[in-house]
Fold this sequence. Notes:
By secondary structure, chain A is an alpha+beta fold. Chain A contains 19 helices and 32 strands.
Amino acid sequence: xxxxGYVGRAVRRREDPRLLAGRGRYVDDVTEPRxxxxxxxxxxxxSARIARIDTSAARSAPDVLAVLTADDLAGHCSGWxxxxxxxxxxxxxxxxxxxxxxxxxxxxxxxxVATGRGPAEDAAELVEVDYEERPAVLDPVAALEPGSPxxxxxxxxxxxxxxxxxxxxxxxxxxGADTVVDVTxxxxxxxxxxxxxxxxxxxxxxxxxxxxxxxxxxxxxxxQTLYARLLGLPxxxxxxxxxHVGGAFGMKAFxxxxxxxxxxxAMLLDRPLKWTQDRYEAMQSDTQARDERVxxxxxxxxxxxxxxxxxxxxxxAGAWSMYPRGCVTEGVQVATIMPGPYRVPAxxxxxxxxYTNKAPLAVYRxxxxxxxxxxxxxxxxxxxxxxxxxxxxxxxxxxxRPEDLPYTSATGNVYDSGSHLESLERxxxxxxxxxxxxxxxxxxxxxxxxxxxxxxFVELSAPGAMFYGAKGAPITAHDQVEVTLQPDGxxxxxxxxxxxxxxxxxTAAQVVAxxxxxxxxxxxxxxxxTGVVPHGSGVWASRxxxxxAGAAHAAAVEVRGRVLALAGxxxxxxxxxxxxxxxxxxxxxxxxxxxxxxEIAAVAYWGTHRLPPDLEVGLGAVGSYAGPPxxxxxxxxxxxxxxxRATGLVRVVDYVVVEDCGVLINPDIVDGQxxxxxxxxxxxxxxxxxxxxxxxxxxxSTMLDYLVPTAYDVPDIRIEHIQTPAxxxxxxxxxVGEAGTAGAPAAVHCAVNDALARAxxxxxxxxxxxxxxxxxxxxxxxxxx
Amino acid sequence: MKPAPFEYVRAxxxxxxxxxxxxxxxxxxxxxxxxxxxxxxxxxxTPEVLVDVSRAPELREHRSDGGVLTVGAGVTDRExxxxxxxxxxxPLLVRTLSLIAHPExxxxxxxxxxxxxxxxxxxxxxxxxxxxxxxxxxxxxGRRRVPAAEFVTGPFTTALADGEMVVAAxxxxxxxxxxxxxxxxxxxxxxxxLAGVVCGVELDGAxxxxxxxxxxxxxxxxxxxxxxxxxxxxxxxxxDAALDAAAAAAFDxxxxxGDEVHASAGYRRRAGAALVRRALTAAVRAAGEGA
Lengths: 785, 291
């Protein structure tokens, strides 16, 4: 490192002032000349054949420009299959507007274009669609029975993908076990509820034959590639712009049929078109997640050492395997992350991913980790109770120890570094176990049961090509960053990865300022426009602090080298003897040789006659990152809850996080990521669930019914860091964006079950934990009355 | 989502409002709009005409007179909640208001609008029912007062006839010697209640219950009186045993609703009984302190 030391400092986020003051630019904030508006006709039923669509009344409604169905788009937008090369995986062919069959409530069927959104919605009500309803497939287990109706008749099965995972002799482990505990767990179907709903503004230039798409997405370059492919354009003719993005969490990492339908319609009609999603549309058509049914058993010795883990996972994929990431990542992660930070010598997991008539299931913050970690931590607590051990003790006896590293899990994940045991000890200490009895008595006096829950976890971050690229999906695994020193000494950073509120513009500036040796204020960061920035793969899988930071560092160091080479010539010194810090070059140890970097830069731009012809004068460089396949962060969460005996209401009253994501670039930004992640995980544990009625109608289409945590529901969160540098990443960083969400559902859930156990009640094994689940558990307890 | 097209009429007087209401097949009164506007945005309500009464001067008043608080149809929840006179005269109302959604919503939402909307989970219709309030209704035939027990006739349905509007609510002030409490169970603070109760107890000189009023909300198609609980308490010394018995009887004869999303009928009944127990305890304590 050459640093002046911005990395590691809680530099204030440069993104915040405009966002907090309402000056962000989201898709809906931008208007093009001649822009028209789109509204969709969506399926009101979960499963039906479309017998007839009559658009004549809608076409003749006031201010309507066009009404399009699948037939109209057929020659203009190819269909696709959300298929990755997982052995045996199958996926149906999807089109931008439903072709002949609808497979979930909310699927787009027709698109109405009008001069205003109101008239477009009015006309959408006039589109007549005759649906021949068919029985909906809603239960993924029943969907595998012979004779079940099929979501995709062309596939001949509802089974999307099935696979075993794991290694080691599990049968021997269970045969030799002193104790076996098991759990059957059901986690609720979630959706992301982004503050900024999805939206697109598409404009086609018929002279240049270029398509410009302003869209709320996590992966602009991925959409550039796929829109080009599906719409029949060269990639250099598609420009994707994403400025501010109001929340995505994995949900905005796909080609959505409604969005590409708008792009296709904009080309067809030769008119800029905007569609801004409504909340009720979001609740019906955004990707969903976490809908997992898991049965798992853990084999242990009498002294609490884990011998083996078995699990059966059924993942409810919904109606479509979303393009291009597919629908199996969550299930695969549930199966393979489950051993977590523990030494589990033998694992046998059996995964089945099943199509149903619901909105598609896909990746969502901490993909698969929440159910996996929840199941493992519930098993650990069951083991502790069965063996008469304290919850922390059973974990202590099984966590990966420093001497075990690098450790390869029985599911093939390599933990190259970490503080698995230390994070537990620190979390227990931070909680302050000495005061617990008093807190318990105080709660009891108020009719409440106090419970404490532990969750030790690992989180896979910053994956490389093995995740998707190796399976045939056009999802880049590396990023590029271009750093340019301008003639006046200011620095422009073009990030391949868009900054979307996670603070990436701030952290990238810190890394570049250090790597290049300039003041932080001299660095300006630009991202989110594929017409301007180099390639990148988007914001996903907790990767930016590793991948973008690595690429930014590489570019900055390259430019620094060029500056020093120039300076060496100008100062008649060996570049190796020069230092560049805070924008000033000097010969190390020789006062009076200090030259501001802009004087060097000015020569590179305008005074090249002073330089030898073989010297590289360009002060812009593209850096890229090609790190390890992934890097795991780790940590321990402790939740303290109060359960009200009379009502079953659960309140999280204290929360402790000890996190190890390696080197911290900006501690405040990391803490913000953790706090937001914990809030999201708490929502999953206690509140959030997409509910369908027996016909597949979503019952949670408004935010009165789909409950997300509010400021009232989230306690203060106490955070400590351990910094075990990643041995394989550029700066020693590990990803952290999803870590809060990975641990929190388990910690909160284990705390509730601890409270129930102290009242003599068995636990709850579903999420969200509703008040009535708590009362039911208390009712079943012999000792509770 | 955009609402279906509608005509907007701003009425500055009650007669203007009635004229506008009478002139259309499907006209709705707009006051705070905190319930109506979202359901219009979802196109679940598609009125032809929206008659905005929120700025009619005569509806913007509230006053305490002869033991009754009268609240005009344009008065917001937040105005009442922050009014020193209301806070002194009707603390039960203020506590009830504090349970409604969040301050931002109360800043626009109105008491009369909540009564007219008649959401089964809303607090204010239950308060009116428990305290024997009345709704003042204006129509072409003049004005009439509808007792709370007759006003809400079903979920989101009231005794208002076509062309009529609520102009005021009359809320009797709790008298000395009585104690009142309001409580509810909500998944998150500010949500509609899974079960709620407004209750009052009057004690005689001997410490016996001279009268009990218990109204439940969020548990049935309308707010309902818990007659079972009231009967147990009438004439009884409200000790723990009596309060237990009252709570256990609170749901007698109540047709409890449930749903998959928020809570089953069984939960509402069970947790609701515990809630009634807790609220009665608070009401008895308050009655004792007031006597």
